[in-house]
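dumping this here so i dont lose it
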């Protein structure tokens, strides 16, 4: 089950976390501001998350396969339309909107489906599936890095699309629902927000997702400012994604065997925020390699523990799809505005990164505070 979920996350989050390589390329080719280019990547994440209530409720109602296949069609259409796009708005609509819709119709149903298969070791199972973001986030930028100078942008993106078509079709064949459908019930379980632990968790994760993707999108641009070549700037992203194998598995193992998912995500949030503040002092190439490795290690824990925490806050399996979708929708709003806001702060700093770095670090420290408050209330109950 988690092997096929791994393929889904490879296609969705692996491509999203490769956007840093596109950010650097688009900045050179499209002559748009960093903030404008960031809207392409942030729109992908926003639509992936914001479709959560709809796709999650459809999964609860027994429509997993039609939703998933429709998402795969949108995803591949977006990739191949990107390959023939030549201006900003064409890329925004194909890579940002069309792929974002496709990703959302696959990722949220798959995560809610996966969580129903495991009562014990759920965090670990989700962690294994979540490493798809790491493998995809390594392979896809590496393909861009190697193919772009040789065959050009169009055929490079088509090559990515062919890989995604094979993986997505495999997942569509083998993923299957486990529990009976829940036909009746609202699209959104508004009563969940009346539960203080669920509400505080969503607020905390809003702040996490507001800041966590800024380094993924801009580490290559920062490297270029330090004199990195385009190839080496993409390698920074490869490293940041690559260490996520450990960063996604280790926290989830710790969550299952010792601390629990909520305790573990608090630690990940504190560590990631602190490391982002330390980025301010990085002014050498060696230092930037070190930052990329350490940040990628801890940021991966935030991403992989998010679904496990949502599942732990929703004991009713028949409501898990809709309630997980609600949590994903909150994260989607944060993801939509986070990286463009970071780009705007770079412009406000006249090309400097200080304002954006401090803002991103503050977001994740604030997240840790709300998550700790949530944990306290959960223990009291």
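and the seq i came up w/
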């Amino acid at each position: 089950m988690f092997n096929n979920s791994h393929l889904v996350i490879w296609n969705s989050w692996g491509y999203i976390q490769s956007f840093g390589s596109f950010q650097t390329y688009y900045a050179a080719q499209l002559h748009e501001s960093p903030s404008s280019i960031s809207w392409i990547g942030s729109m992908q994440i926003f639509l992936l998350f914001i479709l959560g209530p709809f796709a999650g409720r459809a999964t609860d109602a027994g429509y997993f396969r039609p939703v998933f296949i429709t998402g795969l069609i949108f995803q591949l259409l977006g990739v191949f339309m990107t390959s023939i796009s030549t201006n900003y708005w064409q890329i925004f609509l194909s890579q940002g909107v069309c792929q974002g819709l496709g990703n959302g119709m696959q990722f949220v149903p798959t995560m809610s489906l996966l969580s129903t298969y495991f009562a014990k070791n759920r965090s670990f199972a989700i962690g294994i599936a979540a490493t798809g973001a790491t493998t995809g986030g390594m392979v896809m930028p590496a393909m861009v890095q190697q193919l772009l100078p040789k065959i050009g942008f169009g055929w490079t993106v088509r090559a990515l699309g062919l890989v995604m078509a094979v993986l997505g079709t495999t997942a569509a064949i083998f993923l299957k629902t486990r529990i009976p459908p829940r036909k009746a019930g609202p699209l959104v379980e508004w009563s969940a927000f009346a539960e203080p632990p669920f509400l505080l968790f969503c607020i905390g994760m809003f702040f996490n997702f507001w800041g966590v993707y800024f380094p993924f999108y801009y580490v290559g641009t920062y490297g270029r400012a330090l004199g990195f070549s385009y190839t080496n700037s993409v390698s920074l992203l490869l490293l940041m994604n690559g260490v996520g194998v450990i960063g996604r598995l280790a926290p989830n193992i710790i969550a299952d065997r010792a601390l629990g998912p909520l305790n573990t995500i608090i630690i990940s949030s504190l560590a990631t925020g602190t490391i982002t503040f330390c980025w301010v002092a990085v002014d050498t190439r060696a230092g930037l390699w070190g930052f990329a490795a350490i940040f990628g290690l801890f940021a991966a824990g935030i991403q992989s523990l998010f679904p496990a925490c949502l599942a732990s806050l929703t004991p009713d399996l028949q409501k898990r799809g809709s309630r997980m979708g609600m949590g994903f929708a909150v994260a989607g709003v944060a993801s939509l505005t986070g990286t463009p806001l970071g780009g705007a702060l770079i412009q406000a700093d006249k090309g400097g990164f200080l304002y954006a770095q401090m803002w991103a670090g503050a977001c994740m420290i604030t997240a840790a505070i709300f998550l700790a408050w949530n944990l306290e209330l959960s223990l009291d109950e």
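The domain at 2-179+191-380 is CATH 1.20.1250.20 (Growth Hormone; Chain: A;).
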